[in-house]
Amino acid sequence: MNTWHHLISLLPFEWTQFAFMRTALLAVLLASPLFALMGTLVVNNRMAFFSDAIGHASLTGVGLGVLLGLADPLWALVAFAMILGLGIIALQRYTRSSMDTVISLSMSFSIALGVVLLSRGGNFNQFSHYLIGDLLSITPGEVGQLLITTLLVGGGLLFGYNRILLLGLNESLARSRGQSVWWAQMLFCAAVVMVVTMNLSWVGILIVNSMLIVPAAGARNIANNARQYVLYAVGIAIFSGVAGLIVSYYANTATGASIVLVAMACYLVTLSIKATREVLGRRSAV
Amino acid sequence: MEAHHHHGLAPHVCGECCTKLENLGVTLNGVPVLEDISLHLHCGELTTLVGPNGAGKTTLLRALLGEIPHTGSIHFLPVFGHGREDAPAIGYVPQRLDFDRFSPMSVQDAFSCVLSRWPVVLWPTRRDRETAREALAAVHAEHLIARKLGQLSGGELQRVLLALSLTPVPNLLLLDEPVSGIDLPGQEMFYRTVSELRRRYDLSILMVSHDLVGVTAVSDRIVFLDHRIVCAGKPAEVIANPEVRRTFGLDLAPAAPETP
Q: How far is A192 from A37, CA to CA, in rounded Å?
């Protein structure tokens, strides 16, 4: 950690002179690749709405944590989001309703409950930092938690990547290869819950899902295979993470939202690359 | 009805029973879909399931895949050394692969995904690449290895899926209307490839089709299914069956010559 601070403070920028910025940079560099890797699977397996619901359900987790009198509601948040996430998958399997209906249902319930819990006594405003997040006040201890999450979940994701990708391609095909669809789905959803909730306090509930979806969606525009897909997504995520952090420092804006705006700009660039390729392809075909 | 001894098989085809279905039945939502299905599938043979819509053809495949519960019994006799009696290696080519055509996944990626756990996002291992190339060569699709799955034509996609289902060589290959929606040359190419593979790997194949006339040349046996087995046998025998002729309208006026 000291080496990190020392190295970064050698960079000839004004912002590198502040310890909180150096810690924030480390957090961004740890979290962005994980978000990108997970995002590629979330987008491929059409789980974007699911991860969005998990982000929003976290509000209720915070409410429950406060109700239980916890100083740091993080673990109440992780536990509630996990129950809700696995509950969504189980409910969908049981009722065989469409996934978006089950998610909408669960999300409406959890947001309503969260708002009711947090607005008791008219104190909702004190929780608003969960909505927009606060990267600059991240502590070294929290960065340590991020490191552990990244190593564990990232390693698990890499190990299970092939199976989850095949599952996203076609369920029957995955089943005919002797895969347990149920377990793969449950473990993947648990991983989504971990990534979303562990990063919530610095990204913010409102945009945590964009951190997952935007880099992957951009990478899809230009990738031709799975390797390029992940490579581009990680590239976009790291670039927008670092650029967004610096922008937020100079413009004095919320960091998470700034990162998402840079990522959106990257998305537009990939979209124009895709459009250009299509025009060129059509011309060469003629 | 059940012919156990076949004549005229190629000498290297063992012709033994590979999969035995005894009194199989399936009930979905309280409605009996399949009743009293007893069927033996043999190595090196292509058995085709035909029948009207809603006859339970796909349901039978799903029961074999273990996706839905059934009564009666299914016995698999593994002949390739891998696969267990209760969990055989089954190759499966779905009717129309319902997938996201914009997904950045190449043909090689699909192979890497099923071949090993080595993450497909890293470089493919040499072994995975060679296995994929060999499997694709067997279905005349080597040139498609680097293409995106979503950019393949219907016929190309079915051949890639066929190659995928043969990696590793399964005990039983299930094809669910594999050529529906594919143009005629694509269909012929697919059937020719399946015939070659059946001999090369001594495969036991069960194919679902709604096109009785189209499959007579390629099938070793045809089973006419309408919730139960109405008739089964060599293609010529099944085509001669009055109920089959009525269902497929074979006795109507001879087909009008196709407009060129």
A: 11
Q: Which of B124, B134, B118 is nearest to A225 (CA)?
A: B124
- CA dist A33 and A29 (Å) reads 7
Q: A17-34 burial string, b = 16+ CB within 10 Å, else e? A: eeeebbbbbbbbbbbbbb
Are residues B23 and B79 part of one domain? yes
Please state the domain count of chain A: 1
Evaluate whether residue A60 is within a structural domain.
Answer: yes
Question: Are residue B41 and residue B148 in the same domain, yes or no?
Answer: no
Q: Are residues B82 and B188 in the same domain?
A: yes
Beta-carbon contacts of residue A28 (< 8 Å; ≥ 6 apart): A135, A238, A241, A242, A244, A245, A259
- Domain assignment present for residue B117? The answer is yes
Interchain contact A33–B (C-beta under 8 A):
no
Q: Is residue B81 located within the same domain as residue B198? A: yes
Say how many domains are in chain B: 2
Which residue has 């001999």 as its token pair?
B199
Q: Is residue A101 part of a domain?
A: yes
Q: Is B44 a member of any domain?
A: yes
pLDDT tens digits for range B139-176: 888 999 999 999 998 888 988 998 998 888 887 899 99
**CATH code of the domain containing A216:** 1.10.3470.10
- The model's pLDDT over A182-241, given as tens digits with 9 standing for 90+, comes to 888 899 999 999 999 988 888 888 889 999 999 999 999 999 999 999 999 999 999 999
Question: Residue B6 class from Cβ within 10 Å (0-12 exposed, 13-18 middle, 19+ buried)?
Answer: middle
Which of B112, B113, B116, B172 has the most A C-beta neighbours within 10 Å, making it the best mutation to test the interface with A? B113
My answer on whether B243 and B124 are in the same domain is no
End-to-end CA separation in angstroms for chain A: 58
Contacts of residue A36 in chain B, CB cutoff 8 Å? none
Q: Which residues of B touch A (CB under 8 A)?
A: 65-67, 87, 89-92, 94, 97-100, 102-106, 108-110, 112-114, 116-123, 146, 148-149, 161, 165, 174
Report the candidate in A154, A142, A148 with the shortest Cα–Cα distance to residue A237: A154
Which residues span the domain enclosing B223? 15-89+171-248
What CATH number does residue B25 fall under? Answer: 3.40.50.300
Shortest distance between the Cα of A42 and any Cα of chain B, in A, equals 12
| pLDDT (0 to 100) of residue A169 | 87
| Domain encompassing residue A272 | 16-119+138-279
Pairwise CB contact (< 8 Å): A162 & B165: no
Chain A residue numbers touching B174 (CB-CB < 8 A): 176
